[in-house]
Amino acid sequence: MPLSMMKPGCVCRVKRLLGNDAVRRHLGDMGFVEGAEVTVVSELAGNLILGIRETRVALDAGLAARILV
Known about the structure:
Blueprint: E1 11-13, E2 16-17, H1 21-29, E3 37-44, E4 47-52, E5 55-59, H2 61-64, E6 67-68
Antiparallel strand pairs: 1-3, 2-6, 3-4, 4-5
């Protein structure tokens, strides 16, 4: 299921990243690697604030849809 479908308060693990090499590398650099625990902090119009590795990251709906949990 894409991360973009998760609601605030959900805690999940990254299963897979979609997209070309550059997109997957960019997400990996932000900490989105297989097995990483992600918490959805808030959501507004499809854009997400996420907690990952003791930091908060903002992702737009397009990037969040490329992360499968």
